[in-house]
Design brief:
carbohydrate metabolism, iron, eight-stranded mixed beta sheet, Glucose Oxidase, domain 1, alpha/beta, four-stranded parallel beta sheet, iron-sulfur
Length: 600
């Protein structure tokens, strides 16, 4: 099937836009690769320090075996990362079997957005992505590695690791997932319990029981939020082994995939005949494939911030128009919570990413001619892994969806578009995810209720102040103001109002969780209010119109454009829970439309 004209056009304009920066990037990683194997350039003293604690120090010092650097985001507070505790020992054994060596190069922080929702710590969440990139850079700066293995899954961790991998683009790189936890309390039941708690129908004991039944075991949370969107991206962009993203942790197949990924990393180094620097994998086509996957799966809006930052690290420039145009061309093929009732385990069982990639390739909506860690061509990712005894192999994936309530072909999708739309008007530029929003709520025109903190919204709700249609504006939530926290804690409140029959929406310069969905939300509004953006001119009662169909967001008051801005108070976010350490981040961070980064 010929490549879809929109996919071709968007790819070409990204290439043209990035021509100078991409060429400079490729020249940089080529220079870094010219020196050959890294350890050869270290002095004897340098090497002795690097190998002192290793059992296989003679292999490291005397042989030309590849040495693999492990960058790990392990901690045992994140359920998704807890399985990584035993990966380094397994990787070292697998490296020996593959004729290589491996060392933990360093660890990176990994915070849980589920723990910090609505708390002060959430104001560090987005910035943690850049800290992860910096920490990984420190780990790899020892310059003793021929390839890198990245252990990371959750919200900011994979984007931060990608930024680091691209920066060290001369190194072959393979990302290793750990898989989702078993299905627990269905996500729609969990959401219902949260709404009941918000209205006072149940107590905290019932809420706690529901939450513990939802998040209950090692592995990734099973809803389709940012963590699982990251895992999807790693397959669509060719950085996982095919079919490995949603294999459960602590299973024989999971271990076999990890062992094989280590061997694959060893085979891709400059010491062999299949050298593949990750900077060549992370090209314009790979990022377009990632955008296609984001739209086809109804993925997290957080990636609208992360993907531009990830791409910039590889010399590639993405814009909101790229997201919008690809969303208009790519059908929605999956219904996974919050866009449906299924979880990622159900999605995987129905055919998963292998079926989806095959269908999108057949429809001409993906670039097949890409480099991946599995080999040349995205067709490798239409296959699924099989374990027979101790032998791992790949076979063609399901030719048809095994549950068309969860997964459908590209030619008969759930919706003709992916659902992430660009919004722009006199309130600025932002995005809205409409894949889980009912069609009759794609346009909301109502008076504004303006708040500066999400706690103020909750207090107004408890006081019974929301009795008519309104658009809730929460401003002062951008990266410069307070680090751009997720406002997911508002989801139950807004959902209750909507269920009561009110026409409501959210407008904010902050973020919403990847698990948010059915209430229309204009997010990432830029310029942000703290930077003098249009939201700083809004007043209670202003008539606003959010129109996802036309892609517009406006204040309809005739004097709006000439009003002075309101000073956005940020003192509450200046200190406490480590926020004082991030003062320089808030002062120098770029706009959300460019990835809200300070390092790229």
């Amino acid at each position: 099937m010929p490549l879809d004209s929109t996919i071709d056009r968007v790819t070409e304009r990204i290439r043209e836009r990035s021509l100078t920066t991409r060429a400079a990037y490729l020249a940089k990683i080529a220079r870094a690769a010219e020196d050959g194997p890294r350890r050869a350039h270290l002095s004897c003293g340098n090497q002795a320090h690097a190998y002192a604690a290793m059992e296989d120090k003679l292999d490291l010092a005397q042989s030309r075996k590849p040495n693999l650097g492990i960058v790990t985001a392990y901690n045992d507070m994140l359920s998704a990362h807890q399985p990584y505790e035993h990966y380094p020992a397994l990787i070292r054994r697998a490296a020996h079997e593959a004729g290589a060596t491996a060392q933990v190069a360093g660890g990176v922080p990994a915070m849980c957005d589920g723990v910090t929702q609505g708390r002060a710590g959430m104001e560090l969440s987005l910035f943690s992505r850049d800290v992860i990139a910096l920490a990984a850079g420190v780990a790899l700066s020892h310059d003793t590695f021929d390839a890198a293995l990245y252990l990371g899954i959750c919200d900011k961790i994979v984007p931060g690791l990608i930024i680091a991998a691209a920066t060290f683009g001369h190194l072959p790189s393979v990302f290793l997932p750990s898989g989702p936890m078993p299905s627990g309390l269905p996500n729609d039941e969990k959401s219902k319990v949260r709404q009941q708690f918000a209205t006072g129908e149940i107590g905290r004991d019932a809420l706690m029981a529901a939450e513990m039944a939802s998040y209950h075991a090692p592995g990734t949370c099973t809803f389709y939020g940012t963590a699982n969107t990251n895992q999807m991206l790693m397959e669509f962009m060719g950085l996982h082994l095919p079919g490995s993203s949603f294999v459960p942790p602590n299973t024989p197949l999971r271990e076999a995939l990890t062992v094989t990924a280590v061997a694959r990393a060893a085979a891709l180094t400059r010491l062999g005949n299949n050298y593949l620097p990750v900077g060549e994998v992370l090209d314009e086509k790979a990022f377009v494939n990632g955008l296609v996957g984001l739209m086809a799966t109804g993925g997290s809006t957080n990636l609208v911030i992360h993907l531009p930052a990830m791409a910039r690290a590889a010399g590639i420039h993405l814009t909101l128009e790229d997201f919008h145009d690809i969303s208009e061309a790519v059908p929605l093929m999956a219904r996974v919570y919050p866009n449906g009732l299924a979880d990622v385990n159900h999605f995987h069982a129905a055919g998963g990413l292998g079926f989806m990639i095959a269908s999108l390739l057949d429809a001409g909506l993906l670039h097949e001619d890409v480099q991946t860690v599995a080999g040349s061509g995205l067709h490798h990712y239409t296959q699924e892994p099989r374990l027979s005894g101790d032998t791992l192999s790949w076979a063609e994936g399901a030719p048809d969806s095994l549950n068309d309530k969860i997964l459908r072909p590209a030619r008969t999708p759930f919706a003709p578009i992916g659902g992430v739309k660009l919004l722009q008007g006199n309130l600025g530029r932002g995005v809205i995810k409409v894949s889980a929003v009912a069609a009759d709520r794609h346009v909301i025109e109502a008076p504004a209720r303006v708040f500066s903190r999400q706690d103020e919204v909750k207090a107004a709700f408890k006081n019974g102040e929301f009795t008519s249609d309104c658009i809730v504006v929460v401003r002062g939530q951008g990266p410069r103001a307070n680090g751009m926290p997720e406002l997911h804690a508002l989801t139950p409140v807004l959902a209750v109002l909507q269920d009561r029959g009110l026409r409501v929406a959210l407008v904010t310069d902050g973020r919403m969780s990847g698990a948010s969905g059915k209430v229309p939300a204009a997010i990432h509004m830029s310029p942000e209010a703290a930077d003098g953006g249009p939201l700083a001119r809004l007043r209670d009662g202003d008539l606003l119109r959010l129109d996802a169909n036309s892609g517009t967001i406006s204040c309809l008051e005739p004097d709006f454009d000439t009003r002075p801005v309101t000073l956005i108070e940020t003192e509450d976010s200046a200190e406490g829970m480590g926020r004082e350490l991030f003062k320089a981040f808030r002062a120098h961070v770029g706009p959300a439309t460019d990835g809200a980064s300070i390092v790229v």
